[in-house]
Amino acid sequence: QFGYNIIDRFLLRDSERDISRVVGRSYLVGQALDIFLTVPLLGVGKGNYLDNVDPHTHFPYNALYDQSSIFVGPVPSHNELFTLLAESGLMGGIFFILMNFFVVKRIFMLFGFIEELPKENKFLLLIIGVSLFSYYLYGFFENNNPNNVIYLFMLFGAVFSWVNEPVEGKQKN
Asked: How far apart are CA 83 and CA 16, in angstroms?
């Protein structure tokens, strides 16, 4: 499916490709950081990141269904937080980090009541925690589809509205 053996890639058997990809990713993150430092307060605007980076001839992109053509174009940063900082600046970055801080704080607070929670809420809390962790882990190495942000905000809402801490042995409404 990927055009290479994924186990060989993890074992660095094709070091030329693997090293160039690692160096390439750090270059892409550096581009996002440069854009952020150019417009640090408000960023370049949501969705405008690719309009502000140059196409890379040394990173050709072969389309999955059209292997005969090589498309040269701008490449995303492959790091969701750096893309967020480049597009929305410090204002959006701080807002996003604060939202995540309060959600993660709430999850840890609810885990403190794990014994008193009904089994449905325990399961829901586990699913929300695993989903958020997966989102953060994926976003560290790739750029997320904009539709995933809707899912992220749904999880944020679920943490505060679907799972309630027990109050004197009863569930709070």
From this structure: 27
144 and 80 in contact (C-beta within 8 Å)?
yes
Residue 143 in contact with residue 87, Cβ under 8 Å? no
Question: Residues with Cβ < 8 Å from 50, sequence gap 6 or more?
Answer: 73, 74, 76
18 and 6 in contact (C-beta within 8 Å)? no
Q: For position 64, what pLDDT does the model report?
A: 55
pTM recorded for the entire structure: 0.69
Query: Confidence band (pLDDT; 50, 70, 90) for 37?
Result: very high
pLDDT digits 0-9 by tens, 100-151: 999 999 988 888 887 888 888 888 888 998 999 988 888 887 777 777 778 8
Residue 88: count of CB within 10 angstroms of its CB? 21
Q: How far apart are CA 20 and CA 74, in angstroms?
A: 17
SS3 75: coil
- Of 150, 60, 160, which is closest to residue 104 (Cα–Cα)? 160
Question: Residue 116: which of 151, 164, 67, 53 has the closest Cα?
Answer: 164
Residue 40 burial by CB count (10 A; 0-12/13-18/19+): exposed, middle or buried?
middle
